[in-house]
């Protein structure tokens, strides 16, 4: 048991927050943004257009520069054209815009969320009228459980047809949009929160399922550029080429591609990109890539048509940073090595302090890892909520697995024995200490649990049902 002196000592420790998914302030490229902003504001041709209402798809120069940058990074068979890109106010804002244009709360049968899911995404779907229609799709070691998705989406489609739900009920027909029967949401690469990367096979299977059932796959690809070799002793700390094609790339080329004969030209995938993780969330600037028709449809959202392209002034500064190549070099020369060092620091501590206690992490055989987060599975009978509560007493904040369940559908994907931790926000020298504190909490809980179980063993003549008395202890 924790003594009063130990509790008081813990409260004097500096707070370590391994929940917050923000970039550390030391990694914000303030000087680059200042230089680019000064440049564009000194040029009236650029600054005037930046401070007025922009064209619906966003700043043309930023669209061109993003297209070139993505082509160099993902290296698709054909160059990515700017017509495939619309500038957004970031991944979350754009998810809401996509739902406004491409979904109908009645006709769209279900929202399928790969779980564990980014914990703030469900609210966006709720706000678009899908409360009660969110479905969890569990993961396996390759990412999405495609067999589960196929089986359940087929059931959903059959029910909709039997109910006579054959056409959009609330949204009018628009030449720039369409209403999909299903929406699928995922974070395929370095997932928030599961830390997994979806395999190429799964990405191809997912696109085929989406095409069969008229679904739109919306992927948050916001961590793709933050990648590095997995080994803690790897010499390199930078990887300048994408490890896998995105789902939107697969849709562009697989089996005749999104422009294949008989297709409607909107495609079945939309890639959400953002500068939040690689430049700064306060920029409120991102992009969506899809087919030309889909990208244009996003640009016709009512708020954009009324208020102009989002982040118009910021877009001109970001365009400047990309055009000079300074942002790309900052990602490869500064961010990737910095996050690699943070990740390796945390993983080394996990291997030393947590793995011996029975903790597990997914996909340990990967050559390349990345992102912001690590997903931990606790040894039974420990539960994430209890660990998080006890960790708080050590001035340590971690995220319990239940936070990442799909509201209303914990039946198909629940995570009571999991934690998510972040290595991006806290100062690098606090990461190992955070893991040591977590290990101390877990060791204490395991000891207390073992003692409680021993104390609860029935003596001769006692009711043997007492063996179950500690089932809900955690």
UniProtKB/TrEMBL annotation:
Aminotransferase class I/classII large domain residues: 50-438
Name listed for the protein in its UniProt record: PLP-dependent transferase
Keywords: Transferase
Start and end residues of each stretch annotated as Disordered: 449-474
Compositionally biased intervals (Basic and acidic residues): 463-474
Domain of life: Eukaryota
Organism: Lepidopterella palustris CBS 459.81
GO molecular function: 2-aminoadipate transaminase activity; pyridoxal phosphate binding
Statement: the UniProt record of this protein carries the keyword Transmembrane helix: no
Coiled coil: none
């Amino acid at each position: 048991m924790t003594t009063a002196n130990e509790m008081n000592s813990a409260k004097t420790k500096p707070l370590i927050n391994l929940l917050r998914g923000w970039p550390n302030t030391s990694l914000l490229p303030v000087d680059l943004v200042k230089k680019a902003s000064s440049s564009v504001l000194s040029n009236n041709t650029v600054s005037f257009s930046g401070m007025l209402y922009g064209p619906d798809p966003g700043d043309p120069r930023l669209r061109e520069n993003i297209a070139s940058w993505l082509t160099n990074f993902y290296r698709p068979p054909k160059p990515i054209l700017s017509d495939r890109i619309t500038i957004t106010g970031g991944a979350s804002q754009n998810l809401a815009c996509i739902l406004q244009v491409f979904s109908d709360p009645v006709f769209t049968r279900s929202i399928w969320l790969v779980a564990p899911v980014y914990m703030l995404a469900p609210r966006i779907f709720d706000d678009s009228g899908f409360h009660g229609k969110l479905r969890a799709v569990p993961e396996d070691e390759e990412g999405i459980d495609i067999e589960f998705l196929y089986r359940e989406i087929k059931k959903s489609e059959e029910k909709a047809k039997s109910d006579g739900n054959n056409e959009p009920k609330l949204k009018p027909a628009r030449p720039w949009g369409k209403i999909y029967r299903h929406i699928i949401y995922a974070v395929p690469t370095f997932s928030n929160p599961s830390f997994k990367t979806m395999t190429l096979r799964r990405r191809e299977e997912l696109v085929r399922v989406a095409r069969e059932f008229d679904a739109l796959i919306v992927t948050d690809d916001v961590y793709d550029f933050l990648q590095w070799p997995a080994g803690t002793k790897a010499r390199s700390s930078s990887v300048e080429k994408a490890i896998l094609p995105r789902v939107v790339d697969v849709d562009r080329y697989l089996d005749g591609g999104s422009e294949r004969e008989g297709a409607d030209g909107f495609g079945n995938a939309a890639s959400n990109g953002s500068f939040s993780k690689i430049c700064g969330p306060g920029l409120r600037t991102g992009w969506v890539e899809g087919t030309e028709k889909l990208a244009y449809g996003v640009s016709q959202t009512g708020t954009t048509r009324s208020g102009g392209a989002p982040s118009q002034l910021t877009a001109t500064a970001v365009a400047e940073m990309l055009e000079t190549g300074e942002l790309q070099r900052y990602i490869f020369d500064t961010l990737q090595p910095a996050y690699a060092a943070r990740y390796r620091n945390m993983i080394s501590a996990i291997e030393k302090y947590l793995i011996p206690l029975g903790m597990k992490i997914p996909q340990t055989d990967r050559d390349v890892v990345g992102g912001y987060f690590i997903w931990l599975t606790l040894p039974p009978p420990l539960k994430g909520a209890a660990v998080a509560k006890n960790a708080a007493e050590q001035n340590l904040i971690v995220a319990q697995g239940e936070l990442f369940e799909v509201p209303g559908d914990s039946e198909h994907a629940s995570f009571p024995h999991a934690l998510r931790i972040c290595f991006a926000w806290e100062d690098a020298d606090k990461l190992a200490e955070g893991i040591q504190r977590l290990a101390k909490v877990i060791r204490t809980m395991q000891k207390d649990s073992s003692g409680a179980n021993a104390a609860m063993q029935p003596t001769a003549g006692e009711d043997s049902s007492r063996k179950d008395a500690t089932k809900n202890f955690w």
